[in-house]
Specification:
Layout lengths: L3 H10 L5 E3 L15 E3 L16 H17 L12 E5 L8 H18 L7 E6 L9 H14 L7 E5 L4 H10 L2 E3 L9 H10 L6
Parallel strand pairs: 1-2, 3-4, 3-6, 4-5
């Protein structure tokens, strides 16, 4: 039986000649015939956005810019792009799950050290574009920093949390070189940043 929500969408789209979706084709629901559906990158700049191929000098330039941002904020930097890292695309919203993810990283870090003591453990980067000074976001941001300080002070040099401006290429570089990417589900739909990741890596990597 077809869910009511899909029936509703089909009814609303029955007179539509063309639907352009920001969702990658592999993730979009089949609510229209393939010939009537088109797909477009979610990047603001369609010609120079998150899915743009990168040259070595692009990676070096934005890698240095990224480290400068972290250095100015007093956060640990990475040896970019040689050092591995796990990238968390955070939104700094209530009940997002960042603290649970940090606990999982702590367990992963200690297990990896025990199994391979001479192999560097990937660092953990939490990047967001929301201001931590916002009245609504400040308590959440503070609770995350407090959790790191109180429960995993030994990992202080392996965990970095910083605000980045919504510049396509800086995010593009971070996404391109990440060992793994974590983005929690959004009840209002797939976040724009995750759509960029899926188009960059391919849908099979993000399920």
């Amino acid at each position: 039986m077809v869910p009511r929500s899909r029936n509703t969408r089909l009814e609303r789209l029955k007179h539509v000649d063309l639907l352009v979706s920001q969702e990658p084709k592999d993730l979009a629901q089949p609510i229209m015939l393939g010939k009537n559906a088109g797909y477009i990158s979610p990047a603001i700049d369609q010609l120079d956005g998150l899915t743009k191929p990168l040259h070595d000098w692009n990676v070096s330039f934005y890698g240095r810019k990224f480290n400068a941002i972290y250095r100015l904020s007093g956060k640990p930097i990475i040896n970019y792009p040689n050092e591995q890292y796990i990238l968390h695309l955070a939104q700094i919203v209530p009940n997002e799950g960042t603290i649970c993810l940090l606990d999982a990283y702590r367990n992963f870090y200690h297990r990896r050290q025990a199994d391979s003591p001479h192999t560097p453990v990937p660092k953990f980067l939490t990047c967001h574009s929301r201001s931590p000074n916002n009245d609504n976001d400040a308590p959440i941001y503070t609770s995350v920093l407090t959790h790191i300080k109180d429960t995993m002070p030994d990992l202080a040099q392996s965990i970095s949390i910083a605000q980045l401006q919504p510049q396509d290429q800086l995010w593009n570089v971070l996404i391109s070189k990440a060992l793994a990417i974590v983005q929690f589900n959004d009840p209002e739909g797939i976040p724009e940043m995750l759509l960029g990741v899926v188009q960059k890596w391919g849908a099979g990597y993000c399920r």
